[in-house]
Specification:
- A hairpin with a 5-residue loop joins strand 2 and strand 3.
- Helix content is about 55%, strand content about 5%.
- By secondary structure, it is mainly alpha-helical.
- About 25% of the residues are buried.
- The chain has 6 helices and 3 strands.
- A 3-stranded antiparallel β-sheet has the order 1-3-2, covered by helices on one side.
């Protein structure tokens, strides 16, 4: 990459980003996908809270309903506000994603134990929980990006006017961050400033005969 231009990044939601897309459009797509994951995580949290409520009903009686009613109210209100980009919902949404990530990770460890115990049928659920934990954790990390926070609260101008000669926008193959790069100067030694992973895979470097600098 040329100089420090690799710091000009914006989080993208998927690998299918067009290099000519504006940062605002990229954020919109990322925000929509994050809102979807937030909705799924919220549903799972509420369902788990409902199970806990049912287990406590014999002890707490009718007041046990609050165990899942309160999370339901908080999750629904946060999701609607986050989708509408209300400023107060920014960190509560990140907190819900973080809680869901912890839950998924605990379930991942549980199914991992089952697999190690010889229950091969638990392998699929272990992989699903592992991916769910990783995906939710990645969305939590997005909220610590200044550019994501800027996009949440305001319009991000298009970066094309700031691109230098020979530069283009490209997505990191690992974290899907969009970077300003010089394709002719890209090498296997270049890493993403966001996730610190190589921008060029070993397979691609070997295929094209690139040597690490």
């Amino acid at each position: 990459m040329a100089g420090d231009r690799g710091d000009d990044i914006v989080l993208a939601g998927s690998a299918g980003q067009r290099a000519s897309a504006t940062l605002s459009a990229l954020f919109d797509q990322t925000h929509r996908s994050t809102s979807l994951i937030l909705a799924i995580d919220s549903i799972i949290i509420v369902l788990l809270a409902q199970q806990v409520s049912a287990a406590l009903q014999t002890i707490l009686g009718s007041s046990a309903m609050l165990v899942w009613a309160i999370p339901l109210f908080i999750c629904v209100l946060t999701w609607f506000s986050y989708r509408s980009r209300r400023s107060w919902a920014y960190w509560p949404a990140a907190a819900i994603l973080a809680i869901a990530s912890v839950i998924f990770f605990i379930l991942f460890l549980q199914y991992l134990f089952f697999v190690l115990s010889g229950v091969v049928g638990a392998l699929l659920f272990m992989l699903i929980m592992g991916y769910a934990a990783y995906s939710s954790f990645q969305r939590v990390r997005y909220h610590f990006s200044p550019l994501y926070r800027q996009g949440y609260s305001a319009f991000i101008p298009t970066p094309e006017v700031d691109l230098e000669d020979g530069e283009m926008l490209a997505a990191c193959p690992n974290c899907m961050a969009v970077l300003a790069i010089r394709p002719d100067l890209l090498s296997p030694s270049d890493t993403c400033p966001h996730c610190k992973k190589p921008l060029v895979s070993k397979e691609l470097a070997q295929r094209h005969g690139w040597e690490e600098e």
